[in-house]
Structure formats: C-alpha cells, structure tokens
C-alpha cells in the first residue's frame, strides 16, 4: 500500500491508499498511531482508478510525499506566478541530522495567513498582519531563525525560518540496528528499531549520548529501560504499538523531547512528574487504557497537538487550561462526564474532539474560543448547548447522536461553516437554510418527519445524509443541488423518490437507500436502468441494512 507522509511545521501525519478493483481503502492518522481506515466503493474499476489518482494528486499538492520503496524519484517544485509571495523553505538537511532540524513556513497574503497546519481568514489585512507578526514572534521564542538564503523581506512581509535545535556531531548519521550504533556511538543521532520483533531493549542505549530520534514502534516491548532518561539530546521518541504497561520514572528527564508517540500501548497511568517534559509540542497517547492524568499535565506549556482518544478518562485535571499553546485536542472515545471550565482559556485551540463520551453539558467558556474551527460533540447525551455565536471561526460542527431538544442559538451566524451534523428533535429551524456554504450536512433523529423544500437553498452541498428519521418523502429539489455527489438515505421510511432525484442519479457518485420500504415499482425502474448493486458495487444500494447498521 503506497504510504505518504507530511512532516512539516511540527505536523507528523501519514496517509496510505490501496486500490483493488472498483474500490480503494485509505488509512490515515498521526505518524505513530495505527490510524483509521475507510473503504470507498465505486460503480466501476475505471471510476475507482480515476478517484484514486485524484486523491493522490491532492495529497501531493498539499505537501505529502511518498515514502518507502515506492519513493524512487521526487519532482522539482513548480514556479509560483509573478507577484505571489513565496513561502517555500529550503529543504532541511537530510538523514545524517536524524531529524534534529525542523522547518516551518508562513505566508501572508491580503487578509489571509497560511501555515502547514492551517489557513486563517482574518477580518482585515491589518488584523492579518498582527496575527502574522504574533506567530513569527512565537516561533522566534522557540528558537527558530531565518533560514540561509531566506533573508527577511519586510516589504513583502514574508520570512523563511529553519531551526537549529542542536548542532549535529561530525559524521552524524542514523542507523537501524544497535550493533551498528555501538560501533561509533558518538556519531549516532537517529536509531530506528521499529518492527524488529524486540521483546527486550538491547544493551547500550545510554552510550548514544548524541541521539536525537529514537523509534521503537511496533515491537513487543513490555518496558523501556531506565537509561533512556540519560539521552539528554533526544527530541523525538516513538514507541507506539508496544505492550507497555508503564513508563520509567526517568522519562521525565528528557527535557528536550518535542515529539512523544505512545499510541496503542497498555498505559493505565503516567508518571506524576510527566509535566517536566516542557519542550513537548506533540503528544500521542491514544488507544491506551488511561484512567487519569497527573496534575502536572498542565505544565506542558509548549504542547500544540494532543491525542488522548480511545482511553478511559472520566475526568480531566483543571490544569488542562494551562496548555495555552494547544491547537488540537483529541479526547473522543473516553468516559468523560464533564470537562473543566478552564478549557475556555485555550485561546489558540483550533480543533476540539469530544465525541463518544458521556457529556450532558459543555462549559460556557468553551463556546467563546474565537479561533476554534472544528468542534466535534457527536454521540454524547448532550442535553443543551446555549449558543455557538461566540465561535466565529467554526467550519465543522458535529452534534449528531446527541439529545439536544433544540438547535443552539447563533447557528446562522457561523458564516464559515462547511460541515454540520445534527440530531433533530423538532422541525428543522429556518436558520439551517441560511448556512449556504455548507458542503456536508447530516440530519438524524426519529422525530424528524419532514425535510422542507428549503433544502434546495444549500447549493454548495457535495454530501448529504438523512439517516434514521421518520421521513416518508423527500423534497423535489435535487435539480438545485448540482454539486451533490454522495447521498446517504439509510434507515428512513421513504417509499418513493422525487423526479429530480431520479435525474440526479446520473451525476451522483453514490446513493444509499438501504433500510427504506421503497416502492417495488421504483425499485424495479432503478434496477432496469442498471444502476443498482449490492453494497460495494453499483451506484445505488438498495435492500435491508446489515444487522447493527440501523
């Protein structure tokens, strides 16, 4: 399966895709995690190949690069049009540095700012310039310097940065075995022992005094050696997918550690002094049976990306509000019954994932995070959400599978919203139809009996889901939804389809009508047109839903 990685600006993500016949499977996530997989089926192998190539091109365009044996060649960067401010950073030194150097880039253009992690639209060019200067100051405080050949251009207000976290020793190199490392221990800055079948760490790790990156992932290690704490230059440690039940107390001595990935282990707790790892920027602890976090956790003042999903957390320490540099917090799939008000102090937060927990309410303070772009609360017994008007940057909001009895106030003020999921317990409020930038909309709820013709006002929709409702008919508005590609209509009470939907069949890529009492004449007509197939085949899926999917 071809694998692509994106490792700029402190971001460490992977994406892989495998094409097989008329379907392909994508696997994606943070490097160091097992990721999550999605399989998409297409009407034909030709269409699947076309979409496969399109997705690969999009990933390459966004900076992902092919890794492994398939990465035989690289293409030269394309020239930018005249007058466009370039944000390209000269390539960081290659493998001999072992990941000691790191690059970051930023571009200011009009009222927008772009970095490898996000694109922000400000209210005015003046506001954008202020935010631009603030971000650069933060990077300078972290030790970033102007890259060689990238002198500051104040007229264009464009800078290029490269950080020298540490000077590598002469002859610095990376190796993939401890035997090779111990032949010249002072020269080794990178050691990759991933997928080596290790049950015990080989002797001699403490001799690698210049080690900057260590990868022990996907082994059978039940513990890490105490001498790991002596690796004073270590900036990256990956030990994900090992049966680690606890961490050595010496781990907290790694005061230069910026990236720690311990996903998919068996950790039930963390050292009490875990907050001593104050250089951490990215922390992956997802899919561990963690039941609690130590109070010192709030001392991770530089932390920007945190993944605690798939754990057993019932509560969070109030000190979480001290993580003021945090930009992404993944907390979904735990046992949280509440989250602290202090999270409202996370003024740099862009993404907050709290789905699949036991939350009945959300602190009002969170509803005032001005930079928040993604708020996911799906599948919680959430009973009330007062107003979202204080979230002007929100582009994605997930409220499906909740117990909300009314839509939160201020929804129509979210002018940047492109993705929305709702469980509707009442007639759909008119303000939904004012969200004309929506590209994805999901509506669920057994009490939903009517979808009005105002649906046709959402002309930007590319994906629409109306699932698990009591609707018996659809509005005849699909001629107006000219961009619609995917239509999920499972587990409703639909007997007939409107003429505009019959016409839309030709342009839609996929329509799922399973779990509906569809009229036999309608079903016969669709089959006669050669559009119906079983799940995984054909453009239209009919018939019952598999057990557990309803």
Folded structure, characterized:
With 550 residues, the chain is an alpha/beta fold. Among the domains are: 3-67, q64v53_bacfr protein fold (Single Sheet), CATH 2.20.140; 95-164, no CATH class; 438-550, Ribonuclease Inhibitor (Leucine-rich repeat, LRR (right-handed beta-alpha superhelix), Alpha-Beta Horseshoe), CATH 3.80.10.10. Helices cover 10% and strands 20% of the residues. The chain has helices spanning 45-61, 125-141, 178-183, 499-504, 520-528, and strands spanning 3-6, 13-20, 23-30, 36-41, 65-67, 101-105, 107-109, 112-114, 119-121, 144-146, 160-164, 173-175, 188-192, 213-215, 236-238, 259-261, 282-284, 305-307, 328-330, 351-353, 374-376, 396-399, 419-423, 440-444, 463-467, 486-488, 510-512, 532-533, 540-541. The strands form four sheets. The chain has an 18-stranded parallel sheet. The protein has a five-stranded antiparallel sheet with strand order 4-3-2-1-5, with helices on one face. The radius of gyration is 25 Å and the shape is globular. The two termini are 32 Å apart. The relative contact order is 0.06. Residues 69-102 and 147-166 have low confidence and may be disordered.
């Amino acid at each position: 399966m071809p694998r692509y990685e994106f490792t700029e600006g402190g971001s460490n993500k992977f994406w892989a895709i495998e094409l097989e016949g008329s379907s392909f499977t994508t696997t994606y996530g943070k490097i160091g995690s097992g990721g999550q997989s999605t399989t998409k089926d297409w009407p034909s192998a030709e269409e699947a190949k076309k979409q496969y190539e399109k997705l690969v091109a999009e990933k390459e365009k966004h900076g992902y690069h092919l890794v492994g044996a398939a990465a035989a060649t690289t293409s030269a960067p394309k020239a930018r049009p005249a007058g466009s401010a370039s944000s390209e950073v000269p390539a960081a030194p290659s493998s001999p540095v072992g990941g000691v150097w790191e690059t970051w880039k930023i571009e200011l253009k009009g009222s927008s700012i772009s970095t490898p992690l996000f694109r922000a639209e400000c209210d005015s060019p003046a506001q954008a310039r202020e935010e631009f200067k603030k971000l650069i100051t933060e990077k300078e405080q972290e030790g970033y310097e102007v890259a060689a050949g990238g002198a500051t251009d104040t007229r264009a207000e464009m800078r290029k940065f490269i950080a020298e976290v540490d000077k590598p020793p002469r002859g610095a190199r990376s190796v993939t075995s401890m035997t090779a490392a111990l032949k010249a221990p002072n020269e080794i800055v990178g050691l990759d022992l991933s997928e080596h079948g290790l049950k015990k760490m080989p002797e001699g790790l403490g001799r690698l005094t210049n080690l900057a990156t260590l990868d022990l992932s996907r082994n059978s290690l039940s513990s890490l050696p105490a001498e790991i704490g002596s690796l004073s230059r270590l900036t990256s440690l990956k030990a994900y997918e090992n049966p680690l039940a606890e961490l050595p107390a010496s781990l907290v001595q790694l005061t230069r550690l910026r990236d720690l990935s311990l996903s998919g282990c068996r950790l039930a707790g963390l050292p009490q002094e875990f907050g001593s790892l104050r250089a951490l920027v990215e922390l992956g602890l997802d899919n561990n049976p963690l039941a609690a976090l130590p109070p010192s956790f709030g001392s991770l003042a530089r932390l920007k990306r945190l993944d605690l999903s798939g754990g057993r957390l019932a509560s969070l320490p109030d000190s979480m509000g001290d993580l003021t540099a945090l930009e992404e917090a993944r907390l979904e799939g735990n046992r949280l019954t509440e989250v602290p008000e202090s999270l409202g102090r996370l003024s740099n937060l862009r993404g907050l994932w709290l789905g699949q927990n036991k939350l009945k309410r959300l602190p009002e303070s969170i509803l005032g995070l001005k930079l928040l772009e993604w708020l996911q609360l799906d599948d919680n017994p959430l009973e009330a959400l007062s107003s979202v008007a204080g979230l002007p940057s929100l582009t994605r909001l997930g409220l499906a599978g909740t117990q909300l009895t009314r839509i939160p106030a201020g929804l129509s003020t979210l002018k940047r919203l492109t993705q929305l999921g709702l469980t509707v317990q009442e007639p759909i409020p008119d303000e939904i139809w004012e969200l004309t930038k929506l590209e994805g909309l999901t509506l669920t709820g057994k009490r939903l009996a009517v979808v009005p013709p105002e649906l046709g006002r959402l002309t930007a929709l590319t994906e629409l889901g109306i699932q698990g409702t009591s609707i018996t008919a659809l509005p005849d508005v699909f001629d107006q939804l000219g961009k619609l590609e995917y239509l999920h209509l499972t587990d409703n009470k639909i007997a007939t389809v409107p003429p505009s939907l019959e016409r839309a069949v030709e342009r839609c890529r996929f329509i799922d009508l399973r779990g509906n009492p569809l009229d036999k004449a309608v079903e016969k007509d669709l089959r006669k047109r050669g559009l119906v197939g079983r799940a995984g085949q054909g453009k239209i899926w009919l018939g019952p839903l598999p057990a557990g999917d309803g």
